[in-house]
Design a protein that fits this description.
53% helix; 19 helices; Rossmann fold; 2 domains; Serine Threonine Protein Phosphatase 5, Tetratricopeptide repeat; single chain; alpha/beta
Length: 426
Amino acid sequence: MTDPSFPEPAEGSDERVAAYQKAVDANPGDVNAHAALAQIFEARHNLESAKQHAVSALRLEPENVVAGMTLARTLLRERQFSDAEEAALVVTRAAGATQDSQALAWKFVGDARDRRGLTSEAFASYTRSNQIQLAQYGALRDMNHPAHPKAVRGMAAFAASVDVSGWRRAGFETPAPVFLMGFPRSGTTLLDQVLSSHSRIVCMEETQYLWDALSSVLRDGDTLETVEALSVDKIDTIRRVYWREVRNANKGAHSDAVFVDRQPLHTVLLPLIKRIFPDCKIVFALRDPRDVVLSCYQQCFAPNVTTAQFWELHRAADYYDAVMQLYDVCRERFAFDIHEVRYRDVVKNLEGEARGLARFLGVLFEEGMLNYRNTALGRSINTASARQVVEPLYDSSIGRWRRYQREMEAVLPPLNGWARRLGFEL
């Protein structure tokens, strides 16, 4: 959630920490310095120091939004759920809390109630968070964008009918990329950490390299027919721009590094990827669709045309259906080199899944892939799963939707259909 009064903490530099610490030493009553330190330490997973500075700030200013939000988040991570709920509720009532802050605070209230088994109360809290966002950013739901549900369904129709027999398949000067994708909340962040723990793999987190490369040739208003008619020279241009962006951003990478481009909703660009990178490899993350849609509803993402679909449960389910229909068509018609990874299998057999990923990417398995938590602790992760992937593997999120069957009743029929097709238990 992007919010001027409660910005998501960038990985605070040592210099920033030292500056704030100096301010606190000079003036123990500096509320903003205490709050900033709390936020930075929580992002660094130093929960003891985060809580210490958050409490100090709140003693001085009980409704300080940054300190209150950081305390709630820290207490959630320490499994002090009742205290976390209380801290978040204070933020929802704080005079200085923006709508963004209130939405995020209600999400934390929902998380605390969910962990305490208060299912209906938790769902009501998530709904309140989503309603606040919907009231503020509702126009995003219908923005003209390639990731909008209507555009995704149009892409699926194109994929189902286009004649690919004449599309170039080999002979490119640039190498074949690897894409890691899947519907949001399907486990791509966890796979990112596993892959990034390999000495030869560079996993790039939710970059814009593909969009930038496509934009070097394609323009707003171009149709899918334009894509179909791309010349060999233009395709080569897009590929060169893509690799220039990748290599410029990863100049320290080993010469034989395997680059993995992780962006969950690259799925909506699969027909374009087939046109430009028919030789690519795709790692596709799968998770029980009912858990996926519920989890999307429970998050407080930065608002955009994609995340705007998650503020209402029926829209979230419809969006899942649109994206997975597109994936299904592309998997069947385009002969991609795809390796599917199910979240439940990673949780139950991490080593087996890590070995399978290594084989698919053409590298030797390394034991370090099993120590993904160390990798995650040393990185700045900018996704909703940032604080989950530093924890040991757990299975409590598998089948979590069953607790919310009553609240999800209206959207279960189509999601059950997808669960059946993908091989998940009904």
